[in-house]
Structure formats: C-alpha cells, structure tokens
Amino acid sequence: MRDPDLRLTPNRANVAAKVIDGEAIILDITRGAYYSMDGAGAVIWAGLDTGHSLGAIADLLAERYEGTRLEIEQHLERLTDDLLHEGLVIASSRSSPASAEPSPDAAAPPQPFGTPTPHRSTHTQALPA
Amino acid sequence: MKRQRASVLRMRDETAAALIRLVRHDAGSRADDRLRELLSTDAGRMALHGLASQHGVLAVALTGLEAAGARDPLLAEACRPLLAQRAVIRRQAALWDLETDRMLRLLDAYGLQPMTLKGAALRVANYRDSSERTFGDVDLLLPEPDVINAVTCLTAAGYALGDETIAARYRRYHFHYLLTNPMGFLVELHWALQPPSSVIRLRPERILARSRTIERPRAPAIRIPSPEDMVLHLSHQETEDWFSTIRRLVDVDRILRTESAFDWDYLRAAAAESGMRPVLGLTLQLARQLLSAPIPTGFIRSLELSRSTRFHLALLNPLTSVPAGALYDRATAPRYLAIWIAPDPKARRRTMREIATDRFDHFEVPVEIPVPALRTWSRRLGGLAKLSAFWLWLYLRRAGQILRRASARQSKFWEDPPGGRGEGAWLDPFPAGIQPAPSGTRPAPGA
Description:
In chain A, 29% of the residues lie in helices and 22% in strands. By secondary structure, chain A is α+β, with helices and mostly antiparallel strands. In chain B, strands 1-2-4-3 form a four-stranded mixed beta sheet. Classes of the chains: A alpha+beta, B alpha+beta.
C-alpha cells in the first residue's frame, strides 16, 4: 500500500460532492462529469473529505467490513489510483489529524466488503419535477 | 354510471383533502382518521402519490407524511413504500444542487452573477431540507446584455441551445433561452420575466436591484430575489400555470413563514405597479385559506380588487377545484381566469380581444406557419363558444348552490379568517360529503 500517512483530499478547486444516504456523488465541475460510489467507496470518500490518512481509512474499513487487511488495502489503493487518475483528489500537505468521523454509522456490524469503484453517471434518471 | 362518477369524485376530493393536510407546515399534527383511512389502501396511496406528483409537491407531501408518521406508527407502517421514495428524491435533489452550484461557479468565472429564481432559490432560502422542494430546471435571471455571455459560458461547459430557428423564435417572442445538457439538466436563462405581449409588467431590473446574496460554506454564493419579489414572481407564475397546482401556494406559505422582515407595503405597491393585484390576491387568499399562510389581516382587502373580480374568481370554487386539480379539467378555465386576473377593465378588454383573435397564450412561442383563414376563424369561434358556455355554466352552478343553500363556504372565500394573521385558522375546503364511510363499505375507485 501507499504510504499510510499519505492524505489525499478532494480537488476542491474543481470538485464538488455530497454524501447522501450512504452514496457519495462527486462532480467534476469543468467536465460536468458525475461519479457515484456507495458502500465502502462512500466511506472512503468521506474519509478523504474529512482529512483522514490512507492508513486511518484502512483501519476504519477493517473495523466495518469483512475481509483481510491486505484485501482492503489493495482495494483502497486501486480506488485512490482511479480518483487520482480522474483528477478528483490530490495529495494533501496537511499533517494535522482529521477532526471528524468519516461516516456516522461507526457502530454498525461488519458488512461484506464490495469492491469500491467510482461509477460515472450519464443521466440524472427520472428527475422528479 | 352516476354512482361510479360520484365514487371517483369522492376519492379525488378525499385525496385532495389529504394532500392539503400533508403539505401544511404543521402536517405532523394533522393526521386524523380520514388520512389514515385513505392511506390504509393501495388505491388511496396511489391516488395520493398521483395527485401529489401532478401538483409537483410529492417531496413536501412525503416530508409531511413522515412527520405525521412519527406520531402515528400505524400510518408510518402503511406508508412505508411511499416514504421509501424519499431516498430517490434526496439523490435527485443532491444532483440538482451540485449542478446548480456548478453553473453558478462557471458563470462567476465569466464575471456573471445571475439571480437564481424559483425552485433552486426557494430550496436554499425557505425550505428546511433542500430535497423538500424539487424542480425540473434551473431558472437564472440576468441583465439582457449578459445573456449571450452566459450562453457562451454554458455551451462551453456542455450545454446546448438547440435548434437555431427555435432559439431565434424564443429571442423574438419569449423571454428566456432554454439550454440542456447530456445528463438531462435544463437551465432557463431569463432576460425578462414575462413575454413582451403580457399585460403584466414585472420589471427584472428592479428585482435584480433588490436581490440578496446568501453565502454558503463549500458552495458558491447564491443570489436570490428578495422575499417580496419571490412572492410576486411566484404569483406571476400562476399566469403561466393557471392555478393548476398548489406548488406555488406551498412556496408562498414557506416564504412567509421563514422571512421575518417581510415588507408588505412594498409588495402592495409593486403588485399595483406591475398589474398583479388580482393574481396576487387570489394566490395569497388561497395560500391563507388552504395552508394558513401568515398574511396580515386586511392585506388582501388593501389590494382593492373590484367586487366583480372577487365574485368572478370565487365562481371557480378555487378552494376545492385548485387542490383537486379540477380547475384544469376544462381547457377554457385558463381563459376565464386570464380575463379576471387582468389588472383593470382596459387590460380585461384586451385579454378578451386576444382570446377572440386566438392570440391568448403569451407563453406559447408562435409557430410561423401560415394557417388557412377558414380554419383560423372556425378555431376562434369555437374557442369563444366554449368560453361563453363555461362562463354560463359557472353562473348556473352558483345559482344552483344558492338554491340548495350550499354556497356558504365558497362565498366566504374572500373573507379574512378569524384569528389575526391566519395562524391556527383554517377553512377546511373539504368538510362535507367526504367523511369516511364505515370500514368495508366504501366502494373502491372505479368500482
């Protein structure tokens, strides 16, 4: 895994995001591209957004999800590679500890770990008027 | 057949009564046996869902249902599938919020700070939760010279203006451009608030000058109209929607509840200046009677609507026909309404002339295709005949109500409710004839 002390943060100059009902919706402002991640992906996004290091996020995932530490770290690395490649996150120079929990459902029992992947949305789908 | 129609109408009225309860600010305390009875069946829940969607208030009705369900576990259980839709609505609201903010950021980079109108503005300023107020497009108002720059900015960001001929027609006859993007988002760029031919004169430069800017953490600042101009603009929208929904009434109610320093004197003066006294009066009176919107006693009277205007608007039985969506059952109703919300006799005569010459719908962008004269005249005469028949039917209906002594509620339409600013006072529009039938005896809709 990458340096566990590394912090990646949303590229706020060009990215806006919301986490709704366990789904992270991420917008690339310049390109107008929408990405969606749920489950572990949303937890990872919330962790990055609140300034947690990759090691801290891996710890959190290990608490909440079933699977070996190695599997979790591999998935985390793959996802952060994708996010860096899409320009959605950047390396942060911030070294201060994170101030908030990345997700409110910390007390939930461990769940199966699904491969976290950012899905690109192509349509808003059934927009209620 | 007659019984079947009565059953359908009764279902519609019950559903409308339930909807009004659920969109009120105090929906949590409005659950009663009638509401429980309606929502205990699939047909009742489907009817409520359909009517709320038709009115564009599904999200706010579900919020009300959730509040009512919090005090009534049986109701919450019965409505679980309905309430589950809130997750979808929240997701869509998040997408629209992100896209609205994206547009504002992109336009700001072009040096443009448009004013956000209607849904996108209301959800920021006047609704507790942004997902309560859904909308299908973002409306932005700019000074006319800035509109082309805004189009350039948004087209560079993936939006398209569409066919050039249609855009040119919009430029000539209308007051906004419509742009769409591949994700399905729509934005209307306004340089005015009504078509050039409208009898109403809502001045965009004054509304822009009175706008306010709301700063938000991690989101761009958003420029929105003053609360008074929002109420005026929403009332003005009724000249486009013709009171076919209660959505604007709910908006007005929420504005009046959340804006503590509302300038009623300005609203009165601006309504008079823009020729909007009748439409504002009808909007406010409906919001007050149906939703207990806090409007100072005497304000609507101070708009000085003529006796004839009040009488003819009340003939439509708006307290029941608007919530039930029944006003729009008749295609002629908007023409009748247009005549009676015209600001003065001169404008009324002009509206009548426009109806007679088939130039009534200002919001329709004309199609420049020659139509045979005979067809034009037959359509005009047909339209006038329908309007006359509708008008006559309204008189006869009122006469029948007087003879049956059933018109008391409708004749009270323009009265100030007791209890000052309307808080606590509520004229239930559906009190008679729709009491729940004993369990098991009610015919299913369509039976």
